[in-house]
Amino acid sequence: MWSRFSNPAKFEALAKTAGPIAFWIFAACAVFGLVNGLLFAPAEQYQGESARIMYVHVPAAWMAMGSYSFIALMSLVAFVWRHSLADVAARSAALPGAVFTALALFTGAVWGKPTWGAYWVWDARLTSMLLLLFIYFGYMAVWQAVPEQARAARFARILALVGFINIPIIKFSVDWWNSLHQPASIIRADGPTIDASMLWPLFAMIIAYTALFTWLVFLGMRADLARQRIEKRGARSPSHPVRVSAESEA
Amino acid sequence: MDFGAHTPYIFVAYAVSIIAISGLIALRIRRFRTSIRAEKDASEH
């Protein structure tokens, strides 16, 4: 399966079809989730209206961990199978992942004030999420700081795989340590503890953020592949070197 | 939309999320278009 899309031309064909589909899934689910979350879902029994922040906080936290898991998986694929697109995919996921992590921290802080009485506490869940943000920054910095792409890729893969240790710590921190943060209420062995009237908009927002991530990664990968083609063309005809814009994200 | 005392918290959380995601989308589209245009220009030379 991995080798099927190692051909950039095949990947481009997939991305051209799947990208727009992911975008429209994002748009439809986001509208449904936002309208229902803000207007139709009931207030929570104990936290009241502030629980509506859940519809932007939970999907951001989900994708913060999801994006990093994707980066770690792609790094493993690049290490083991030398897949030509795995590093490109991992690198393209870094910026969206960092933004989702920052949003999870920010919306969590805004939700924490009316619920806990404080924007921030050095709680295990919050601290491990902050660490995740720094790992994202480090991952992006490695790609920028090391000029030789092959070496940068090697360092980035190692950092991504070592940093993955933090993901189960984030997930289980609320079970392992005393925490102000509530325990898992969706992914549980005995099923979700949230009422369906809140669960549906929440699911819609989680699907929206996942589809958005997919679309953004496809766009980022296609941009990176276009740049790689320009560089190769420039290398083949040194009498007419092609200048590649220095603008890049990660 | 009035959520009582929680209104400013809810609006800030939603506004910042929407602005950040819009910015991320705009950045990615701009980078994608720049790369595709650069490739097109390179192939014409």
Largest sheet descriptor of chain B:
none
Order of helices and strands of chain B: H
- Low-pLDDT stretches of chain A are 238-248
Average pLDDT rating of chain B:
90
Q: Provide the gyration radius of chain B in Å.
A: 19 Å
The beta-strand count of chain A equals 0
Please report the number of helical segments of chain B: 1
Main structural class of chain B: mainly alpha
C-alpha termini separation of chain B: 57 Å
Average pLDDT for all residues of chain A: 87
Helical content of chain A, roughly?
A: over 70%
Helical content band of chain B: over 70%
Q: Note the gap between the termini of chain A.
A: 27 Å
The counted number of beta strands of chain B is 0
Report the sheet with the most strands of chain A, covering strand number, pairing sense and barrel closure.
none
The coarse overall form of chain A would be globular
Described by the principal axes of the CA atoms, the overall outline of chain B is: rod-shaped
Please provide a written account of the structure.
The complex is a heterodimer of chains A (250) and B (45). Helix content of chain A is 72%, strand content 0%. Chain A has 250 residues and is mostly helical. Chain A has one domain. Chain A is globular. Chain B is mainly α and 45 residues long. The model of chain B has no long low-confidence stretch (mean pLDDT 90).
Short précis:
Chain A is 72% helix and 0% strand.
Per-chain topology:
The complex is a heterodimer of chains A (250) and B (45).
Chain A: H1 8-40, H2 54-81, H3 86-116, H4 124-145, H5 149-163, H6 166-176, H7 196-236
Helix pairs in contact in A: 1-7, 2-3, 2-5, 2-7, 3-4, 3-7, 4-5, 4-6
Chain B: H1 7-44
